[in-house]
């Protein structure tokens, strides 16, 4: 797929992996719409790359519908979707409080929130974008569009306290092949990246010794992943027409320990 001149939507595009991907797409001539809740950051990046910012909550049908409507009105029907919106936390399934020995379990409403953002929110954007892509004629290559999702190595190497996050990201992996098969007859491809430990705003806010230790735990190269490295793989998945239905780790060969 030749990216130049095509419209792309990047969820979570105001920072981290999403921002790097939005910049990479724009550098290749795409018209980029950024879906995010971080208005100031999202508008700044959109202005930088000549794109459009849409305030979007991926847990809301109405918000996602409004975002796609605004993006399509401004830039045209998207042929590219990259899902980077997501969140995480660290809570054990059940645990005993150090203070008084009382026993508590994972709050179900918190578990559901992670699933709603990371898994359901991803699929919501996939389904609505796919419906839009189906309405346009295929490109010369026969393709109507390409999508990239963001899972995590935690889907396979979930650590203590990552039960909701790991489950949500495993769900993203689980939907990749069925969606690829669902859309194959209409020339729409989909792939998923499983990032390891990357330089994201959340992680880089940790103390330097914590960041250094995490980087040293990667077999090679012994550092954190860089957002532009994620973007490079996303671009390859979009441009390479034979890349379809795949889940690819991008992690420097790390395998996460229990904690």
From TrEMBL:
Keyword Nucleotide-binding assigned: no
Gene Ontology MF, one: oxidoreductase activity
Source species, domain of life: Bacteria
UniProt xrefs under Pfam families: adh_short
Gene3D superfamilies membership: NAD(P)-binding Rossmann-like Domain
Keyword Oxidoreductase listed: yes
Keyword field: Oxidoreductase
Family statement: Belongs to the short-chain dehydrogenases/reductases (SDR) family.
UniProt-recorded name of the protein: 3-hydroxy-2-methylbutyryl-CoA dehydrogenase
């Amino acid at each position: 797929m030749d990216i130049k001149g095509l419209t792309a939507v990047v969820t979570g595009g105001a920072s981290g992996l999403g921002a790097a991907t939005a910049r990479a797409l724009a550098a290749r001539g795409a018209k980029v719409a950024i879906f995010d809740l971080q208005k100031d950051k999202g508008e700044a990046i959109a202005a930088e790359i000549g794109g459009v910012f849409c305030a979007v909550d991926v847990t809301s049908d109405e918000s996602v519908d409004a975002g796609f409507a605004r993006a399509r009105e401004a830039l045209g029907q998207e042929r590219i979707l990259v899902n980077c919106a997501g969140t995480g936390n660290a809570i054990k399934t059940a645990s005993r409080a150090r203070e008084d020995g009382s026993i508590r379990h994972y709050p179900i409403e918190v578990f559901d929130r992670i699933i709603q953002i990371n898994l359901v929110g991803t699929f919501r954007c996939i389904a609505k974008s796919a419906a839009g892509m189906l309405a346009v004629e295929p490109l010369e290559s026969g393709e109507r569009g390409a999508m990239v999702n963001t899972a995590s190595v935690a889907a396979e190497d979930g650590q203590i306290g990552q039960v909701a996050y790991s489950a949500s990201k495993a769900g993203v992996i689980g939907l990749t092949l069925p969606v690829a098969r669902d859309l194959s007859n209409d020339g729409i491809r989909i792939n998923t990246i499983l990032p390891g430990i990357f330089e994201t705003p959340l992680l880089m806010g940790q103390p330097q010794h914590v960041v250094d230790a995490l980087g040293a735990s990667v077999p090679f190269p012994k550092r954190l992943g860089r957002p532009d490295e994620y973007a490079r793989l996303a671009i390859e998945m979009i441009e390479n027409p034979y890349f379809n239905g795949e889940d690819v780790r991008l992690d420097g060969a790390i395998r996460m320990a229990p904690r």
